[in-house]
Amino acid sequence: MADGAKKLSELTADDAEEIIRDNYNAIYKYCYWQVKNCSDAEDLTQETFLHFVQAISDYSDRGKPKAFLYTIAKNLCINFRKKSKAISLADIDNTAFEESKAEEIENKIILEKYIRELTSEQQEILLLRYGQELQVNEIAKILNLNRFAVMYRMKTSIKNLKKKLENGGYSFEK
Fold first, then answer.
1. What CA–CA distances, in Å, run from 172 to 88, 162, 163, 166?
2. 3-class DSSP state of 59
3. At what angle do helices 13-35 and 38-55 cross, to 10 degrees?
4. pTM over 0.85
């Protein structure tokens, strides 16, 4: 590899530990967004890294570990949601809200409401891009799409979200 990075199959225990340390918070945030429960998000994050460590020797792609981690987390969250009941607003961690301003809370709830009205694919693209701040190429790898498909779907998702917000009485500066 040109940049000197190791293949995942060549990583040592120290390398794996560094990857876990560098990506733990981002994977936790992703899992929390998906399940809206601190305890479940922690469990899914731990399971993500457990799967990662177990699969390193079998992983043949030379891609970045970050995309591999998000792919594992995505699949675990999908499986978890299939087993879980629908999440209500009562399940949201109240401690995070106690520190926020009332208007910010309201905006987050409204935005989340409209995001949840999008298709699951649109939600996933917006979460990965804006919630996890991943690059288009990373999202393409996670979702097994080409970058142009991701860009098109992202644009469509944003357009649909804006339309839902405008229909709900919210306006945007142009």
1. 29, 8, 10, 8
2. coil
3. 140
4. no
